[in-house]
Design a protein that fits this description.
Elements lengths: L9 E4 L3 H12 L3 E5 L27 H6 L1 H20 L4 H11 L3 E6 L5 H5 L4 E3 L2 E8 L5 E3 H11 L20 H6 L13 E5 L8 H12 L3 E5 L6 H12 L4 E4 L12 E4 L2 H12 L27
Parallel strand pairs: 1-10, 2-3, 2-8, 3-4, 8-9, 9-10
Antiparallel strand pairs: 5-6, 5-7
Helix pairs in contact: 4-10, 8-9
Amino acid sequence: MDGVRDGARQQAAGGGGEAFDRLCSLVAAGGVAVVTGAGISTDSGIPDYRGPNGALRRHTPMTYQEFTDDPAARHRYWARSHAGWRRVARAEPNPGHRALARLEQDGLVTGVVTQNVDGLHQRAGSRRVIDLHGRLSRVLCRGCGDVSPRLELDQRLRAVNPGFHVGAAQTNPDGDVTLPDDMVAAFVMVGCRRCGGDELEPDVVFFGATVPRPRVAEALRLVEGARALLILGSSLTVMSGYRFVLRAAELDIPVAIVNQGPTRGDSRAAVRVDAPLGLLLPRLAAAVTPPSARSPVPLPAMRSLAFPGDYPREL
């Protein structure tokens, strides 16, 4: 077994001490596949569900069955999502995102599997990103199969809802805002731009739904080809993320976990650090690459590789 696993597993609050040194050794050797959760985006102003201030305590996300089976629930989703999406779209990558992109550019990280739907890894400059739960910036039509930018839908909704304004309400991790019933009732939804049908849905995996098999297979290939697995900002409560820890354990691939608070995978981790990612990841990136070898500040992902509307700068 890799030497990283030798000895007692370490845990350090604040990202210092022996656990941080062991994390540096693991990453400096390269070949690291990364799985990220909501905890990496909290410093960008996007709340998480299960972290120290997790939204799951006050907000239960909608299930896909509820969305598809109940027209009233679907209408409520779009009203709340319209109110909150622009705040997520305006979010900027934080130092944790940028440090991770630099680790990839320096050849230490082989790719990122993210449970987030905010697109911030790509905006930070990460190139190989698997959006496990989809992207909030895209809209699908179940009726005709059309795929369109969320920005375009936002513009259409603004045109038919000119007086629809929300104040300082808390945005939830899935990009929606809790609204009073009268605002939901007053909201006007539009149909598909191609077929006119009412079966529009966000290009995301709903809470409790199954990730598409080809996407899971691609993510597993990344993990299986890695020398080490690094979990960042995920409690690993749901199987969509925890499965990668289990697969790494089967293949004797060492696992490192950085998260604020306990995770489901702690007992399988060779290294465990409890620290804010926005502080720890820049320290990690600085520690594992000598100044002469460090790449320049990562540039945003090439627009030509992005879906139109993924980077709505005009918001």
